[in-house]
TrEMBL record, chains A, B:
This is Transcriptional regulator, AsnC family. GO terms for biological process: regulation of DNA-templated transcription; response to amino acid. The keyword Cell inner membrane does not apply. Pfam families: AsnC_trans_reg (PF01037), HTH_AsnC-type (PF13404). PANTHER family: DNA-BINDING TRANSCRIPTIONAL ACTIVATOR DECR, LEUCINE-RESPONSIVE REGULATORY PROTEIN. GO terms for molecular function: sequence-specific DNA binding. It comes from Piscinibacter sakaiensis. SUPFAM superfamilies: Dimeric alpha+beta barrel (SSF54909), Winged helix' DNA-binding domain (SSF46785). Keywords: DNA-binding, Transcription, Transcription regulation. GO terms for cellular component: cytosol.
Length: 158, 158
DNA sequence: GGTGAAATGGCCGCCGT
DNA sequence: ACGGCGGCCATTTCACC
């Protein structure tokens, strides 16, 4: 089912877990007003239903030498499925590209790229335009990341 | 210290943990070729040094009714610190804004917003322009999210 | 949902290398 | 800095109400 039932207690659980998932089951259960077993069962169900897709560690970009974020707007004049498949496959193999969207409007695709410096970005850029035919590529550099969260708004559930 | 020493084994640990952090310590240890105690100590140290900032659950956007992603490019002609503080405070209070950058180039700020539909985006948009003075706001809608990962490239460490 | 309890596994000392 | 042992405690996962 595409829309598993998610009630108010589930929303509370999701809100907590998407902030920090390494809580003890005891405090999670207490926070939502359940005892441990049913609380644990709900979390299991949310995982099985695919609402919770993964449990990951978030790293400090600065501490692993990734101070620079670049947004790349891409236009192309080739619009065949074959071209797209190759383009997507290329992007998937570039770990510096952390986000990739197909856009509406004047830009066809948008990327978010993280790199240590401009020189490293240039290498990613060359790899991009070498493997695929792009008619127009526009790079915008972020000076500062003011907000970044993996916590999604939960007010629209249900 | 801004740059804690991170060796090849730490990189392996980080690579595994940023893919899935809910592994048993035993398999983590085996994967990096250590026994459990030193492996556990390394993970603790990476947390304490702030390399690992959090451990979070990732949710399926579609399953919580957030199918639409919007990139918002913002220009302003007010550049005082007071204006900026208010702008940032406003953004921080909008959970639909999941990313927020100060840019170089012709755009001053860039947001990524997640919402269920265009109508919901319009409400976020109104909230934005109501609370702050923005001279130019351009919204670009994503049709499809082709890649999204919280796993950062680890090839630049050290 | 709740309870209780058994099995598992993680935590964190100590000590040897 | 790694490995191993060991005891304590948290969590998981039963069977049952």
């Amino acid at each position: 089912m595409a829309a598993p039932k998610i009630d108010a207690v589930d929303v509370k659980l999701l809100a907590l877990l998407q902030r920090s998932a390494d809580r003890h089951l005891a405090e999670l259960a207490e926070a939502v007003g359940l005892s441990q077993t049913p609380c644990w069962r709900r979390v299991q169900r949310l995982r099985q239903d695919g609402v919770i897709t993964a449990n990951v560690a978030l790293l400090d970009r600065a501490k692993i030498n990734l101070g620079v974020t670049v947004f790349v707007s891409i236009r192309t004049n080739v619009h065949t499925p074959a071209w797209f498949e190759r383009f997507k496959a290329t992007i998937d193999l570039i770990p510096e590209v952390v986000e990739f969207y197909r856009m509406s409007g004047d830009v066809d695709y948008m990327l978010r790229v993280v790199v240590p410096d401009i020189a490293a970005y240039d290498r990613v850029y060359k790899r991009l335009i070498q493997d695929t035919q792009l008619s127009d590529v526009n790079s915008s550099f972020a000076m500062e990341q003011l907000k970044y969260t993996t916590a999604l708004p939960l007010s629209y559930v249900g």
